[in-house]
Amino acid sequence: MKRAKYPFIFKAQLSLVEMTGVKAATLCQLRDHLKEVPESSVYYHTHHFLRQHQFASPEPPNDFAYWVTHALQEGVLGERLAAIDILQFMTLNDLRNAFIQAIDLSFKNGCDAKDLRVSPAGMEFHFLKCTIFTIPTAEIAYDLKEFVNCLKRISPNCLYNHVFESCLRPPYGVNDFSNWLATNLDEHDLARKIGRLDPYTQTMEGLRGKIIHLAEQRMRE
Fold first, then answer.
1. Longest C-alpha distance within the chain, in Å?
2. Which of 9, 14, 114, 141 is close enough to 146 for a disulfide, judged by CB 3.0 to 4.6 Å?
3. ω into residue 120 within 30 of 0, thus cis?
4. Which tens digits make up the pLDDT trace of 92-148?
5. Where are the beta strands (DSSP E) in the chain?
6. Global pTM?
7. Nearest 5°: CA angle at 86, between 132 and 49?
8. Cβ distance 176 to 12 under 8 Å?
9. 145, exposed or middle or buried, with CB in 10 Å at 0-12, 13-18, 19+?
10. Given its phi and psi angles, is residue 85 left (phi above 0), alpha (psi -120 to 50 degrees) or beta?
11. Higher pLDDT, 26 or 87
12. Cis-peptide into 58, omega within 30 deg
C-alpha cells in the first residue's frame, strides 16, 4: 500500500458570527443589500447555514430561500433560490451574483411595484457575517488504511470542512479528500468517485459512510 510523502491532516472549524447591522423587509432590499454586504456574509447565509443543518436530509435550503419562502410567502422564488447549487461556484462573489440574478428574474413590475410584499414585523432578514478559523486535529493519514480509520473518528464539523468548505479553496471545486488522494496516493479513480458524490441528497453521516465504503472497496481490490 502506497504511503504519501505529505500526509492528510484532518482539520476542524471554529466560526465567529457577527451582526452587520443591515436588514431587509422586501425583495428589493434583500437584493440591494446583497450587492453590498461582505463575502463573509454571503458565506454565512449559504455554507454556514448548511453546516448548521448537516443532519437534515434531503437538501436543506440556504437562508435566503428560507426567508423568502417563510417571511415573504414567495414559494416559487424560494424554490428557485433553494435550487442554487452553492458548490458549483468558484468564488463567493459568483455565488452572490447567482442569488441576485434569481431575485431579479422575479420582478415583473420593478422594485417600485405597489404589490411588493413586505415581511411581517420582527421577521426582517438580518445579514450576519462569519469569520472562519481552521484548526488541525490529531487525525493524520499517510495511506488509504489510515485515511479510512481517521474518517471513522472525525467529527461532522471536520467532515464538512473537507467536503464543502474546501470547494472555496484552490483548487476550486474539488474537495480536500479527492485532491489529496489523487495528488499524493495516485488514487485518481477513487478521487473521482468521491468527487461525484452528491452531499446534498444525504446526511453528513450518510456521506461519511459512502466515502468509507468506496475507500474500503478500493483496499480490497
1. 68
2. 141
3. no
4. 899 999 999 999 988 865 655 555 789 999 999 999 998 888 999 999 999 999 999
5. 8-24, 125-141
6. 0.71
7. 50
8. no
9. middle
10. beta
11. 26
12. yes
- Indicate if the alpha-carbon torsion angle 209, 144, 191, 5 is positive or negative: positive
Q: Which residue has the cell 442569488?
A: 99
Position 56 scores a pLDDT of 46
Show the CA angle centred on residue 98, arms to residues 96 and 100, nearest 5°.
70
Kind and range of the H or E run holding 70: helix 63-70
d(C-alpha 99, C-alpha 149), whole Å: 39
Chain center to CA of 95 = 11
Burial call 23-58: b when 16+ CB within 10 Å, e when fewer:
ebbbbbbbbebbeebeebbbbbbbbbbbbeebeeee
How far is residue 164's CA from residue 144's CA, in Å, rounded to a whole number?
21
